[in-house]
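Quarterly update, task 2.4: N-acetyl-L-glutamyl 5-phosphate-bound model.
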Amino acid sequence: MIKVAVVGSTGYVGTDLIRLLIKNPDVDLKYITSESYEGQSYSSIYENYRDVFTKTCTGKDLEKISEEVDLIFMALPHGIVSNEINSSMLEKVKVIDISADYRLKDIQVYEKWYNTEHGSPELLDEAVYGLCEKNREDIKKARLVANPGCYPTSSILSLMPLVEEDLIEKNSIIIDAKSGVTGAGRGINLGTHFTECNESLKAYSIGAHRHIPEIEEQLGSLVSFTPHLIPMNRGILTTSYANLKENLEYDDIKKIYEKYYKDEYFVRLTKEGVFPETKWVKGSNFCDIGFKVDKRTNRIIVVGAIDNMIKGAAGQAVQNMNIMFGLDEKAGLEDVSIFPV
Ligand SMILES: NC(=O)C1=CN([C@@H]2O[C@H](COP(=O)(O)OP(=O)(O)OC[C@H]3O[C@@H](n4cnc5c(N)ncnc54)[C@H](OP(=O)(O)O)[C@@H]3O)[C@@H](O)[C@H]2O)C=CC1
Ligand SMILES: CC(=O)N[C@@H](CCC(=O)OP(=O)(O)O)C(=O)O
């Protein structure tokens, strides 16, 4: 059994982690922490756990926790985790950080885009970017995994085969992305207030979103990235455009995607003419990808869909845990989409 702690257990990602971990037979969920609800039973915070999961939230005593567990999931806002962990802690415990603190290798880039000081730059080199389908071998050996961002997960998985095979013109990538409101977390703010976002669609952080450097670092290309807030709870859809270098047919590109993903259980390629929809991945750890070659413009258009809180956060974190501890990569992640809801 792997002994596990979830720090930040009452946030949206934290609660999805709990849901995935309590049904995993290889996991002993020893600690769940909360600053706001310390001493309270989890089921008094989230009623869906009544009589099912009643563990009490403790404070965030990381020194003690790291002595007693094998793995800590950090589900805290950005800018906190890098001040909480250090090298000597990593000698005792593995960490999967779901915030962005270790995703970017260049500290100056991090501090510029996140507008905060990094608390442990000495750990940036060893942190492994936890996109399972890209870095599985390094994840197996990692002590510290930086779980990817939600928009980057869909964007990078959609574009990686094209970039790796040098099929698209450098820096021609445009990503139009849409996210459900849980992407903004549980905290209250005006933009995610029901009356402010329901029945409306908006672009935000145009050319300035903090996921831009993350996507660019992983793809090695500049990108134009525009996120939109969609009035639904879960789901991300990314529609990416890029100029093809040569005249390629659908079947040529399909072979390339198959080369990268045919053995990847959680990446599913749609059939020609069928494009991913968030409802087919909601509540699951799948990333669905479909594409079209626009012969008139010689551009490729790739659509990716994930559940922002599962493959975009908690599910990918569990997948990373499974890889780090040599478990079946699918353990606890077998659910298909909740449809209809
Ligand atoms: N939501 C999503 O779709 C995704 C989120 N992420 C990342 O995962 C992390 C958690 O996100 P999410 O669960 O959505 O966020 P939430 O705001 O829902 O939850 C974060 C939790 O962290 C705890 N917390 C501890 N210290 C602080 C603090 N100083 N300020 C605010 N909260 C604090 C709070 O719980 P308490 O007070 O009980 O301790 C809070 O509920 C973030 O880094 C986020 O960017 C990544 C991918 C997708
Ligand atoms: C809808 C919404 O607000 N989404 C968030 C991104 C989700 C998130 O938490 O970002 P990470 O994946 O980097 O952790 C945003 O745009 O800031």
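Highlight for this quarter: Residues 269 and 289 are 5 Å apart (CA to CA).
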